[in-house]
Amino acid sequence: MKLTVVAASGGIGRQVLDQALAGGHEVTAVVRNPDKLGESGARVVRADLASASPQELRAAVAGADAVLSGLGAVGKAGVGVAEAGTRAVVAAMRAEGVRRLLVVSAAPIGTVASPQRPHPPRHDPGEGPFMRYVLTPAVKRVLRAHYADLARMEDAVLACGLDWTVVRPPRLTDGPLTGDYRVAYGQNLRGGSRVSRADVAHCMLRAVGDPDTVGRILGVAH
User: Fold this and answer.
1) Which is it for the CA torsion 106, 54, 99, 210, positive or negative?
2) Measured between alpha carbons, how far is 210 from 7 in angstroms, rounded to an integer?
3) What tens digit of pLDDT does each residue of 4-52 get?
4) Which of 18, 70, 111, 171 has the fewest CB atoms inside 10 Å of its own CB, making it the most exposed?
5) What are the residue boundaries of the NAD(P)-binding domain, all occurrences included (predicted)?
6) Does the predicted model carry a pTM greater than 0.90?
7) For residue 23, how many other CB atoms are within 10 A of its CB?
8) 183 in Cβ contact with 204 (< 8 Å)
């Protein structure tokens, strides 16, 4: 398949890129700094997703069978990139007639308010007591701005009219690719407090061709 990987030099994006290339796919990598990729073997399109216009991204998505995005803020200065970059990617995809979009969000986002969902549920139905009353509230306080950005990104994705999938992992680790992870539709996973970036990438690539994941939010965890 022809795949476009957005934020391909980031933690999850690089894993998607490497696994896609290893799987024999033809890959276009969208990055702000191509030097971070080295000799990856992918076609590279340079773009700053915090400010890129849809027109700048059309060449990156043209002809793609799917677009996979690992966009997310790194540090406070990057807050806003998930929403802004995703909206630009969506507009570019619609202009080029590309339908399949997969994005990474985060496990707590189902309980984060957004313009399109001002009154979300207080708790995710898949969480156990420790996650529900201790860990998730603590993490949401620390990452309030980051999660608000991801919630607005999800608003954009859910309203985009494309064949979308949102993947919501919990705490990310740099562990190896195992393929041994759990997936739940529309909720988080009981006892699932972490997952490796490599396994999140594997989940996204596996979902590309799975029609059951279209228009669905996936919880993924070890």
Assistant:
1) negative
2) 23
3) 999 999 999 999 999 999 999 999 999 999 999 988 899 999 999 999 9
4) 171
5) 8-211
6) yes
7) 11
8) no
